[in-house]
């Protein structure tokens, strides 16, 4: 496994603490950094056959005031949409030359039900969902499968305080459920833990408006911050 990240010290610590895990320095907002990292990784690990476009940011934005949200919105789109697009562009030819390969994108339950406080984030993840669907069609005759990981709210550092938010899914439970899905259903197109299905299938179930209301009433942490 090769972990990519922009914090050199953290990468060094990961490599030291996990023998066998390799690292590469990459800032996914910079085209040059992605190209250089891809070149380096492909040269060092020519058998590499999985790309996971995991890096992402989430920002609370108040769209009443453009001076406060525009810069954030641009950063969200660059990181969450342009980053994965550039990463896939940098690796797709290499992956197509493998006998069996996977591109895993990371969207969100918020691709399917909007959280009022984070418009650009929701839109970026909806874009990743449709990109994944489209890419899967284009690559269907090739050795590359496309899987989309659709997390619910999980206790990570995505937003300040989220790691301690009781309403979010504990990270270890999320990882265990995801790994079990991957092991038991390796060809699954959308990797969905049970918790995300409330957000993912509101429209299909016919209770979308209720899901939107429940989600937006249920996250006082984010609501407090947007005001
Ligand atoms: N946690 C959730 O509730 C949740 C729900 C749905 C989807 N997701 C998605 O899951 C993915 C992982 O997020 P997370 O929850 O693990 O949040 P996280 O703890 O904040 O991790 C995000 C990671 O992305 C990295 N990153 C951000 N911008 C980058 C850049 N320009 N170049 C390289 N790395 C960059 C961060 O590195 P730094 O530490 O250097 O900033 C960090 O390691 C994201 O795509 C997120 O949208 C998360």
| Bulk shape | globular
Q: Look at the structure and give the CATH class of the largest domain.
A: Alpha Beta
Strands, count: 6
Instruction: Return the string of H and E elements.
Output: EHEHEHEHEHEHHHH
- What is the CATH superfamily classification of the largest domain? NAD(P)-binding Rossmann-like Domain
Structural topology:
Elements: E1 2-5, H1 8-17, E2 22-25, H2 31-44, E3 50-53, H3 66-96, E4 101-106, H4 119-138, E5 144-149, H5 171-184, E6 190-191, H6 197-200, H7 202-205, H8 208-217, H9 220-226
Parallel strand pairs: 1-2, 3-4, 4-5, 5-6
Helix pairs in contact: 2-3, 3-4
The structure holds NADP nicotinamide-adenine-dinucleotide phosphate.
